[in-house]
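Example (one chain per record):
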Amino acid sequence: MMHANSCNMVCAAETSASPSVLPASAESSSNFSSEYTDCTKKILLAGIALERFSLNYRLEAAKQPKFRQIRYFLCQEAGAAGGLVFEATGADQFGKGRRSPLKLDKGALRAALATTMTTSIVAAGSSGLELTSNIVRAYKNEKNGYDSHSATKFVSAHLKLIDDLLLKRETLVAQNDNGHGYSRAVAEGQMLHSLRSSFVNEYAIFNADTRSYMLYQNMFYFLNASYNTVGAIAADVAYRAVSRPHLNGTANILFITSGALAMVTPILTTTAEKYMRGHSYASIEKQLHATKFDPAEFEIKCKEMASLDHSTDGTMMPSFPVTDRMAIYTASNTLFEKQLESETKVIHKFEKVALQTSVLGPVIGATLMTQGILGTNGYYKYPLRPRRQIAQFYYGSVVGTVGTGAATVANAVSLLQTLSYEHKLTKENLMPRQLIQKRLQHLAEIEKTVTAL
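Predicted structure:
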């Protein structure tokens, strides 16, 4: 596999290194320079392999199936529109029925209920399809080494290699504490330690973001499939209740259940996502023995190292300019992560269907639950007073029309916003995948420079 090959290459290179020699003459100075450069080169190459893996991990683990966005929005829009058809028909028919029950058109009610039952099944099926797709994707990622466990194992192995090389380098530098460029070598060592912290920090962020979003997504798909399934069953029972009124109580209780599930789904998924992000980040830091990486402090170290007098260091220690370049790459990482996080956050915000949002989701769910409560109240409170009972059904349908209408409009707006924003980002080469690809290209250029040492 790609990861194992990278690790083996660096490990093999390390084994071929010569033992440390104290430079006491021109010949020993040459040996020191060679060993020092070789050791630093291996550290940088291991770091580059780690950085490349982190970027590819983010790219692969967060990849979404082709056409998911369109097909899922269309299916969820069908579910919302089907619900709106029933609510509007119910408001019309129950509005007539509350004045004269004989004017109620049972055929129209059955047709509307059949429509919402069908579209609820479509919406539930679409969530089931996407959940299954994520499970298959997770299996493929595991085979390719891009699941969280395999990825952390790979990163841990490379960090151990880097730590061993850093220790070897420190020993070599300590043996030359009176030699030319000692202060510069110490500064470079501090920089390499900071780079190590940066690699861990970036992987921890990517891992936490990926795991938390996948949990959020899978949890929503499961709950969405659940309440749409309950909604479809409720519509089926209500369909039969048109001819057998004794089923109205059961139908409305099912509507309450479906609405309640829809109402709490955004709250549950958002809470689970936040918990998973914090938990994953802390877990990775603990497993990889991470030290705090402070971007501001890192920039100060970069300036301090640049300010040292190293006019002749390039002949004896040619790794210095390369470390500088790697440091500049890492310093730009803060901006890269902020930009990546910003664009990803906006895309995730726009791509949510109405019932996923923390603002609209609970409100829409509450309207559907209220409809069920009004219907249940009417059925059990006024069993022998059909006008009063139908009046409660009418009020419920009016409330339900508001909720399903909001969902239908919000879904359409969300889809248009997402397509427009992604089109704009694609033209400007600012889509998350494009940002990562540019980062990988930059890394490949640095790798060529390091390899040439």
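Caption: The chain has one domain: 2-451.
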